[in-house]
């Protein structure tokens, strides 16, 4: 009898050191699927490889043997003699359906509710379909899973609210300025988080125009990468009046922006608000600047607190998401039972999926 099953390595069962040994590029999927089919005796298969998991979904008449062959396939394809079987998990029948539908909905992601996994699943499915490896059962399975994910995301808050510091900063900037197109940004210091935050703002239309660092060569290096102007450290206070958003992340043991320094500059801004993002510890920006009209200052704890609350809000939606997914699982399960019984009625009269 044909059995739906799947499994593999994921972030919650294996280390990144192990997963990176068996990662597949999408262009490798066709060759890998062909080898999987032969080694694991599969009738249908979809292979998925992301930074958090290397998994498969398949149909086979002997899923137990195919599961044992999974580790051997990884060893042969990647030429790595590692005990992948010890860190692989497997799902059969209804459990496999549930796993895929929750995965597509972002419930099994390291960052709960993230949407990138849905695009990765769609790409994996389309490649398998092009290779003739997604047939009757996997076609229906994946289409049903995508429909379940769409229902979850349109009826719950599972994807709402940013849960990284840089994304929260972008959200706050958009609330303050509306569209970020045309907003000018200055980076003070050269921390990785500040650079990531600036680039996240840039993706939304913000324009990074100035970079200041105590080591001018470092400022020059960053500015060349993002096509901004590098300025000497001594000049950055006077340039604040030109920008809408300032991201600060220096290693200074004291405030580099104080209320006293900022107050006269605010009068030169024509009433435009100033969004200050302080990512440094110790803080770069005197919290007293909040007393100035038009100044909005958030430090790393403020941003992380918002991100943490957003994550709690997402996790609170998980049960609601699972309730929405349940009828999708049941519909596919009943369709598969009926289809298998119709196809193999003589042999499968007493068929039950695990």
TrEMBL record:
<dbReference type="InterPro" id="IPR006151">
    <property type="entry name" value="Shikm_DH/Glu-tRNA_Rdtase"/>
</dbReference>
<comment type="subunit">
    <text>Homodimer.</text>
</comment>
<dbReference type="Pfam" id="PF01488">
    <property type="entry name" value="Shikimate_DH"/>
</dbReference>
<keyword id="KW-0627">Porphyrin biosynthesis</keyword>
<feature type="active site" description="Nucleophile">
    <location>
        <position position="51"/>
    </location>
</feature>
<keyword id="KW-0560">Oxidoreductase</keyword>
<dbReference type="GO" id="GO:0008883">
    <property type="term" value="F:glutamyl-tRNA reductase activity"/>
</dbReference>
<feature type="binding site">
    <location>
        <begin position="50"/>
        <end position="53"/>
    </location>
    <ligand>
        <name>substrate</name>
    </ligand>
</feature>
<dbReference type="InterPro" id="IPR015895">
    <property type="entry name" value="4pyrrol_synth_GluRdtase_N"/>
</dbReference>
<feature type="site" description="Important for activity">
    <location>
        <position position="99"/>
    </location>
</feature>
<feature type="binding site">
    <location>
        <begin position="189"/>
        <end position="194"/>
    </location>
    <ligand>
        <name>NADP(+)</name>
    </ligand>
</feature>
<dbReference type="Pfam" id="PF05201">
    <property type="entry name" value="GlutR_N"/>
</dbReference>
<feature type="binding site">
    <location>
        <begin position="114"/>
        <end position="116"/>
    </location>
    <ligand>
        <name>substrate</name>
    </ligand>
</feature>
<feature type="domain" description="Quinate/shikimate 5-dehydrogenase/glutamyl-tRNA reductase">
    <location>
        <begin position="171"/>
        <end position="306"/>
    </location>
</feature>
<dbReference type="InterPro" id="IPR036291">
    <property type="entry name" value="NAD(P)-bd_dom_sf"/>
</dbReference>
<feature type="binding site">
    <location>
        <position position="120"/>
    </location>
    <ligand>
        <name>substrate</name>
    </ligand>
</feature>
<dbReference type="GO" id="GO:0050661">
    <property type="term" value="F:NADP binding"/>
</dbReference>
<comment type="pathway">
    <text>Porphyrin-containing compound metabolism; protoporphyrin-IX biosynthesis; 5-aminolevulinate from L-glutamyl-tRNA(Glu): step 1/2.</text>
</comment>
<comment type="similarity">
    <text>Belongs to the glutamyl-tRNA reductase family.</text>
</comment>
<dbReference type="InterPro" id="IPR036343">
    <property type="entry name" value="GluRdtase_N_sf"/>
</dbReference>
<feature type="domain" description="Glutamyl-tRNA reductase N-terminal">
    <location>
        <begin position="8"/>
        <end position="156"/>
    </location>
</feature>
<protein>
    <recommendedName>
        <fullName>Glutamyl-tRNA reductase</fullName>
        <ecNumber>1.2.1.70</ecNumber>
    </recommendedName>
</protein>
<dbReference type="InterPro" id="IPR000343">
    <property type="entry name" value="4pyrrol_synth_GluRdtase"/>
</dbReference>
<keyword id="KW-0521">NADP</keyword>
<comment type="function">
    <text>Catalyzes the NADPH-dependent reduction of glutamyl-tRNA(Glu) to glutamate 1-semialdehyde (GSA).</text>
</comment>
<feature type="binding site">
    <location>
        <position position="109"/>
    </location>
    <ligand>
        <name>substrate</name>
    </ligand>
</feature>
<dbReference type="GO" id="GO:0019353">
    <property type="term" value="P:protoporphyrinogen IX biosynthetic process from glutamate"/>
</dbReference>
